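Assemble and predict.
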Amino acid sequence: MTNQEIIERIDRSIAEEFEIDPGEMKPEKTLFLELGLDSLDIVDLVILLETAFRFKIREEEGIRKIRTLGDIHAFVIQKKNELESIPR
Amino acid sequence: MPLKRVVITGMGAISPFGRGVDTLMNALLSGESGVRFLHELADIRGIRTRVAALVPGVDPGEIPRKYRRSMSAMSVFASLAAGEAIAQAGLSGEQVRGGRLGVSIGSTIGSPRTTQAFFDDFRIDNSVERMKSGVFFQIMNHSCAANVAHMFGITGRTVATAAACSTGSLAVGYGTEMISMGKQDFMLCGGADEFHPLTAATFDIMNAASIRFNESPGKTPRPFDRDRDGVVCAEGSGILLLESLDSALRRNTGILAEIVGFASTSDPESIANPNAANIAHCMRQALLDAGIGPEGIDYVNAHATGTELGDIAESEAIRSIFGDRVPTSSLKGNLGHAMAASGAIELAASVEMMRREILLPTHNLDHVDPLCASVTHVREVTPRRVDTVMKNNFALGGVNSSLIIRRFRQ
């Protein structure tokens, strides 16, 4: 999966789950103030990402630093890269 | 401290006939049945009943996601019914949010559908890793009350009654008492439930669910009829906006009826079976609360669910107090039994009967059971002015309730 495909998958999943206009899904948008999510939604967002990308991130420190949609893109891409660099 | 008089100024209903009190009344006046064959039940081993009365035409999507995420179907029903009641009462945003409006809405249990969905997923691998944040808010016992309060921004009291079939009536009764004592000026009161096979099975295993009319759903349930064979489970919500008379007069709003009596009693004889003497005791307590004698009641809206024992016990109780003087009917022949919602839906219909000066009959009452024949049954839509109505509900668990409403006069 390319980085662009990852971004598109994230945007599509979040827009669908949280009923956000796809046109609003811009990297600079803040999750709470601009996309209208709250702390309960973040619980569901983590499950959404874990299910979509088949990794576990709930305990990751990096999640707490996420503020914007772009932060999610970067976090997921980095996580995917980490997992793919681990020898199987 | 003098008690305040309490009136009904708004009503809402989500019923097996769809949305709104008018829709409900039109269907009842036309003698329609909300009962349908349910394929879902046919796939369950051990259950014999195949009929239920489900709510059609409700799209949860009209409720904003922020509120909907914590709602199961029962809270959606309650919220839509509450919206109708608030609109009819004409409450302003300030009156809704200002702290003088409280909520008294219950359900039999928290959402059985969400509970099942959670455990279905949990049992796959003994994991809660996929548990979404809305689960608890849908299965908690005060889900309907809390969701209604949340959606409308209500900041007064929140109480969630839970007494199965008496839930809605208790919610109205306790809401009445709170206003009467001056603790709130307005209360949104009622009940809601969503259908789940667990509810039908509960009655089925006790041989109290209707099983002989699976191929002719509209013929069941049959309250007071000699061929009745049990309950048909339903779903929906009934919500009434109660208000102190002082407030209603000050607002110059339409008064639909006054609540003049309420009683609830426990029946320790049996946790499941109704007892005529204890039912009668509850009805007498309601008369006492209203300060009127049996001669003051013009119509009884019965609980009568169509079970063999319950309908006989209620008939005996009504006869022991009123003789054969007071016309009586049950709306469950049309509606089925919406459990926690039934009391409030039927109360709303009773208010409308009083306003429209008609009495609705018991649907499917073709041949009155001789053991239920000691009361006067309403057999057809009957033009009749009634000023005072008793509304009964009796619950599994032995919780009885009777409300008395009266046409408003100064």
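Chain A touches chain B at residues 18-19, 36, 38, 40-41, 43-44, 47, 50-51, 56, 58 (CB under 8 Å).
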